[in-house]
Each structure stands twice: as structure tokens, then as C-alpha cells.
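Collaborator request, handled under Task 6.
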Amino acid sequence: MSNDEKIRITFLGTGTSHGIPMIACRCPVCASDDSRDKRHRSSLMVEYGGGVIIIDTTPEFRLQCLANNITRVDAILYTHTHADHIFGLDDLRRFTAMQNQKIPCYGSPKTIKTLKTIFPYAFGHTGIVYSEIPNLLDVEVTGPFEFFGKTIIPLELCHGWDKVLGFRIENIAYCTDCSEIPPAAMDQLHGLDILILDALRYTPHPTHFNLDQALIAAQKINARKTYLTHIAHEIKHADLETKLPANIFLSYDGQQLSV
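C-alpha cells returned to the collaborator:
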């Protein structure tokens, strides 16, 4: 891949649904002065070929855009519709107004149906749309699709009793909010340069990988590098980073990688 074809990813948020610091908590992580322990809700920016893709619009989406100087958005990929992954959707109105065009939102049929129920005013516009209203195009994902010249492969993951999507773009895969990677998705995760994987906390959880489970999954997938995300306040960055295997890392808000 030449320099012009590189994919750049930016971790906009790497925290769990509460964020860190958590409301009314003074634990060592929530009280930490290490910037890597300040975590917005989990989302990712992917840039290539002049295009900008956002994976999930968290409640901090506006703050993430300001912190990372995001001035354009060409598409949104939605993993699922839990509040911590969608409630920044309304802030897309700034981008649809600036760009004077619809922004496509990709998600499973279930996700798209829920988004249109929660944000009915944001979809299906005809005629004049004002800057106070997002102007979005809903796209149901039922298989691989093309965007800016690259194939994006949806990965069906188990999030407890629910089904959510991960995404593979070239040799990068984003698998947040998962407690199991089914065989069909595991087959799509061979040969990765970068795997971004859910690792909520040390102790077990019914809908997320804990650290041990994430490390087992990472070993099976065997990506060149794995970055752990969706981290709760039980994990202090400085305490864990030096104890991880050589090719596995804790991600942090604002971190950038190139492939």
C-alpha cells in the first residue's frame, strides 16, 4: 500500500457506556490525572482516499469533533443502537449543512429501523432542509459494500443476547461491544494488521469481553497488532499497559494509527 493509499484511524473515544471519569466516582481511575484515563464513549474515525468515516456517534460526538479537528464526515457506520453509540447523531446536522448533501448512515436493518424511530426528523428529507436538522440517508447493511474505493465487510458479533456489527476495512477490523465472535465473523478476521477489540474490565461481564477473554480472542485472530477499547474504570492505563503481550496495546482517546 503506497503512502497515498494509507488508512489513518483515530480513536475518538475508548471508554465504556459511563465514560471515564464516571459520574460521582472518586476511584483511582476516575480521579487519575493521566490523560489516557479520560475516556469518551467508544467510537472511531477512519480516513482514506479523501473520505472520512465515523463509526458510531456517541453522546460526546461534538466534543470529539472539536478535539480532533473533524471538518468533514462522508459516512457513518453504526455498530448498534445502544445509547452510548448513537446519541450524538443530531450533531451531524453541522456536517450536512456545511457539505450541502446527505450523509449515508450504514447499519443492520434492525439498527436502521431503530435510528429512524428515535430520529425520524433526520431521514427521508425531500426539498429544503435547514441547518438545524440533519439530512441523512439510511442504508441497510446486509453484506459487504464499497465506499471510497474500498470494500467494507460487516461482521456479525454477539453482544450478550443481542447481535451487533463490527467492521473490517482492508486489514483493519473494529470489534467493539462483543462477548463472542461467531465462527463466520472469525473467518473474516484473518490477516489483519490492526484489530480493535472490546476489553471492558478484569472481571467477567454478560455482554462484553473481559480482559482475559479479549486476550484469548486476540491470540486466535493473531493480528499484527491489537488495540483494546471500550474500557471501564476498573482498568488504569498505566497499570496494565506494561503487562500486556508485546503486540497488544491499550488504546486511548485521540490516539492515531496509520496502515
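The cover message to the collaborator said: "The CA atoms of residues 28 and 236 lie 8 Å apart. The longest helix spans residues 211-221. Please let us know whether this matches your experimental observations."
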